[in-house]
Amino acid sequence: MIDLYYWPTPNGWKISIALEEMGLDYTVKPVNIGRGEQFDPEFLKISPNNRMPAIVDHDPPGGGAPVSVFETGAILIYLAEKTGRFMPTDLRGRMTVIEWVMWQMSGLGPMLGQNGHFKFYAPETLPYAQERYGNEVLRLFGVMDRRLEGRDYLCDEYSIADMACWPWVITYKKQEIDLDQFPHVRAWYDRLKVRPALRRGYMVGRELGKPSGKWDEEARKNLMPNPTLPQKTD
Ligand SMILES: N[C@@H](CCC(=O)N[C@@H](CS)C(=O)NCC(=O)O)C(=O)O
């Protein structure tokens, strides 16, 4: 059994989708990031970066003590290796999947995160930041579009790289990105969205909170960059 420390957000969905796709048993342990639960000392032992998701696998390959993993890229690779699914085992195929997972982790996710932040959550309008992240997001969608030309998936077969990217691409409307400018991304997005396991993963924890809900005062306090973190300030 795997404990999934989770809240329904793009990073959370990557792992709920992977767990569903892989048919693994898991228990959701909600981490309400709007209420500061990512700073609980017990959670920080699992995820010292005070970010969800994280997992604890009580039945790791080879047995022994439970394995805890934070950072979605690491979790996806761990789950793919545990199940032998959604990541090839040959050197070249494996490296290609890891490249695209890293691309998502270092580019697509963080840049969409910043784009959304400066568009919707920043307390003041900062045109320079909005333009910088807006342009970077379009550049990344362009990279993805060229990669997907003539391909069904980011790598040879459906893989954890697709699972890493899809939950961020789904934010395109809210992020005011015109997906029709990226026809290969659009076709890939539509191809994936009908997968039953992906849809189940995307719905996990829907009852916990609206994924695109507005931040209230307490959420703002918990989620705004604060140099004193990971100390909770109240
Ligand atoms: N690089 C991390 C990012 C995870 C992340 O940013 N999670 C957000 C929600 S999508 C979070 O936990 N935020 C809590 C906070 O900002 O304090 C990963 O891929 O696991």
From TrEMBL:
Listed Gene3D superfamilies: 1.20.1050.10, Glutaredoxin
InterPro entries: Glutathione-S-Trfase_C-like, Glutathione-S-Trfase_C_sf, Glutathione_S-Trfase, Glutathione_S-Trfase_N, Thioredoxin-like_sf
Record's compositionally biased regions (Basic and acidic residues): 210-221
Residues spanning the membrane: none
PROSITE patterns attached to this UniProt entry: GST_CTER (PS50405), GST_NTER (PS50404)
Domain GST N-terminal positions: 1-87
Stretches for region Disordered: 210-234
Residue ranges annotated for the GST C-terminal domain, each copy included: 90-212
Protein name as catalogued: Thiol:disulfide oxidoreductase
Record organism: Sneathiella chinensis
